Amino acid sequence: MGRPRKQAVIKPTPELILAYVRVSTGRQALGLEAQEAALRAELTRMSVDDAQVRWLIEDGASAKTLDRPKLQEARELLARGEAGALLATKIDRVSRSITDFIELLAASEREGWRLVITGLQLDTSSAMGRFVARIVAEIAQLEREMISERTSDALQAKKANGHSLGIPAHRRIPEGVRAKIVELRGEGLTYHAICDRLQAEEVRTPKGKLIWYPSTVQKVLDSAATPWAATPGAPRIVRGTAVIPEGQLDPKAALRAS
After folding, report:
1. What is the pLDDT of residues 54-103, one digit of tens each?
2. Which of 32, 58, 164, 199 is the most exposed place for a label (fewest CB within 10 A)?
């Protein structure tokens, strides 16, 4: 009589399911609610009890990389066999990188857990599900790259037509320097005198230079709530034009102030 055949050990399927929700900014509260509602509907359809679900909510996290606290927690639980599935509403809630998404798929196959994307009715527990997941991720990345190309082309066209791109230089001046400019103007200094003072104190421009221009100083003052403008008897500037306060005895003095 031969030796009894050794029966294969079947690893029990973990009951814990991880419901993953992510938004990029804190202002997307409605996004969180919509994702939670969609996942709850799927869990109900799967007849999953609340005790079997752990919610992982990533609020204000980008999906450019997999280095996110809640996602890392999910991966550790899945790798240790303490959870059997990761649920999300869309692929881009989990990852916006095709490389990272393929890495997750490989991990799910290697470690024996499944990724479920409810918005696509996609379940990677089957070979077809894994195949479809790869195709969808490739299409999503292609769409992002095409949007990026169109945006770049539009910006280059604006630049070629003489439009300035990016944040204006005077808006990149640190708040402390802007306050200093307002203070100096309040002391009665002209734009040129303010430039001289900033250069003497070696205050650098946003480009790291020591040369300040009156036009930059004026833009800072125009964009600020300047207390000096409301000072009785002081000249104020409206779109580069000196406005003489009522009762000013020397209009030329006010013009020289600019």
Report:
1. 999 998 778 778 889 999 999 999 999 999 999 999 988 998 887 888 88
2. 164
The neighbouring-strand residues paired with 87 are: 19, 116
Give one DSSP letter per residue of 149-180, joined into a string.
HHHHHHHHHHHHTTPPPSS-GGGGS-HHHHHH
Strand segments (E) across 51-200: 53-59, 85-88, 114-117, 122-123
φ, ψ dihedrals at 18, nearest 5°: -100, 120
Structural domains in the chain, CATH included, are: 17-144 (3.40.50.1390), 169-257 (no CATH)
pTM over cut 0.85: no
Beta bridge partners of 19: 55, 87
